[in-house]
Amino acid sequence: MKREMTGAKMVVQALRDQGVDTVFGYPGGAVLPIYDEVFQQNDIRHILVRHEQGAVHAAEGYARSTGRPGVVLVTSGPGATNAVTGLTDALMDSIPIVVLSGQVPTFMIGSDAFQEADTVGITRPCTKHNWLVKDTDRLPVVIHEAFHVATAGRPGPVLIDIPKDVQFATGTYSGPKAMQTHYQPAVKGDAQEITELVAAMEKARRPIFYTGGGVINSGPAASQLLRELVDATGFPITSTLMGLGAYPASGENWLGMLGMHGLYEANMAMHDCDLMIAIGARFDDRITGRIDAFSPKSRKAHIDIDPSSINKVVKTDIPIVGDVAHVLEDMLKIWKARGRKTEAEAVRKWQDQIGVWRKTNCLNYRNTDKTIQPQYALQRLEALTRERDRYVCTEVGQHQMWAAQFMGFEEPNRWMTSGGLGTMGYGFPASIGVQVAHPDALVINVAGDASWLMNMQEMGTAAQYRLPVKQFILNNERLGMVRQWQELLHGSRYSHSWSESLPDFVKLAEAFGARGILCTDPAQLDDAIREMIEHDGPVILDCVVEKHANCFPMIPSGKAHNEMLLGEAKTEGAIEAGGAVLV
Amino acid sequence: MSALHIKRGATSHSAYNLRPTFSDVEERHTLAVLVENEPGVLARVIGLFSGRGYNIESLTVAEVDHTGHLSRITIVTVGTPQVIEQIKAQLGRIVPVHEVHDLTVEGASVERELAMLKVVGTGDKRVEALRLADIFRASVVDSTLSSFVFEITGAPDKIDAFADLMRPLGLSEIARTGVAALLRGD
Questions:
Q1: How many CB atoms are closer than 10 A to CB B1?
Q2: Considering the entire predicted model, what is its pTM?
Q3: For B89, which of A129, A149, A307 is closest by C-beta distance?
Q4: Is A1 a known active-site residue?
Q5: Chain segment A110-139, per-residue pLDDT in tens
Q6: A406 is a catalytic site residue
Q7: Whether the Cβ atoms of residue A324 and residue A247 lie closer than 8 Å to each other
């Protein structure tokens, strides 16, 4: 099907043909023709954000919770530069995002025109790929290719920069089928390597699955196959922050999250295992701790769709390049065909050993009835929302780690958090994106006071679209994680890590026509959480918590998995000079 | 690991893995990267090297297939085996990159570079420069009464050697193209 139309019309038509139902954006001079087309149709819903960073994070929330690419529309210059943090966040966490940015007309490019920026230059290192379209006929082809690139292989953000004259000019529209690309990452893993892994699984005495966001990115089938494989083999499983929900938190082989603030039993099992099966995880420094002491006795298999993830940080013995779902399917098939063998007796003993570690009860904390402990707040939030159709976002910091520790995820795509980039200000706009995609679900953003303020302007968006997002702010009047590091590393000199002049969050909510709830008393917490859930509209719950709580357990920088700090008593001098230079 | 362990999976473009991946020894590798000739593709490749802290010793680029719009980038880089493997994998990830070849491990290859050297001088030095140029099969592409511009083609170390000899004879300027390389045989 070929039709003549303007570039601006092509944008809307191409989005329609890609099955896009929602765009997050903010208008401006260089995208006016596209906004004019958006105005004249009803197939695609446009959500007006209050800042372009919010648009990208909202699109990320949409993408992470649906598995479909999130779409963003911004203007040239500041519109595009404001999107950069969101693009980088999506690149680090492998989230498919398509950003359409306006650009000054082609004949003005390079003249330092009003609101001109070298958008493709600026976003080149923070996108999977980007394009500047100088010819209207190329526009639909590029948009279709962009959706393909964003979603194929390891997903990621892409950007299409569209000069204003290209939007006005008329060209020939071509549909998604006309798209030609050589970019076709392999999804099938090498059968020989998979067989080698299965053979290693059959002989493993202390195996562990170490899974990550790649399982979730691979789609629901991957999580299903993972569950089947884990339950059939009886091997214990741990996950990164990004992978929570791929295997259910209630599953019997679940160890909890691993890494810097992961569970004691998960990290000890990683350290002592003899076979590590990494699936869609990338050996991030938050996971490995000290590299030369990382799981020293294990053979390591690594399944990843991105060849550059393999051997990047940790030497892999069995590398398998492929899509998680495809590889897991083959693994199961081969393992079953070879007789479903495991060293069952040894694995049982290994599970017993893990049970001993589990008894450490590493998430233990001292509760009081005077002030709300942040851990207690999350335990109550978990207890009161677990049974609901629930999605959880977070900002970045202590509250994020506590949420990962104390909340249980039974399904993939239910947990939206900024893992790789650690973007404060991510959670609130992300919760908006999730709520737009799932209007009837309970969407909670677990936040800290400092993070939440970073994108608080999105209250306007939540109010405008009556999105009943629940902002659960653990308010300690501090930059809690910074404060914790200053206590452990910098002689308790709390340089600029407290929140002076915080707003009255209740009044702030009310100023936007939303509900504000203040809670300072542990005895009232359940009622406050219930009120937050029941209110049909956006809510800020200002949960005033203990100001000096630290997040444990913790692997100090520069230490190994088996050198975890379990609580306040043992932290003095825990981080040495070598560790202090690490982040 | 046996000497001819055929490597599977990790980096599909290199056929043989003759080295321990996590050795500390730095190696010099010549990579040939076939890319779509689209705007910004060279910036992507260079940005990858600068952004991730890799070395570029030499880089050449030119379109080699006009109808297919393909350019060939030849990069000489130095790094530990792990870094070299990473560079290849990272290059392979760039969307307009079609192929990545490590000429250093894929088999014997020929490397050539073209250089032009301006040598200024008179008398004996001028005669000596001309004599050495003849030995190196360098040709004179410009001459005045007090200068020559020599053109020389060869492996980079041959050009180094020629330049070293010209230096005391009045070498005033040198322009080098960087390395172009092809695998030997068919």
A1: 10
A2: 0.94
A3: A307
A4: no
A5: 999 999 999 999 999 999 999 999 999 999
A6: no
A7: no
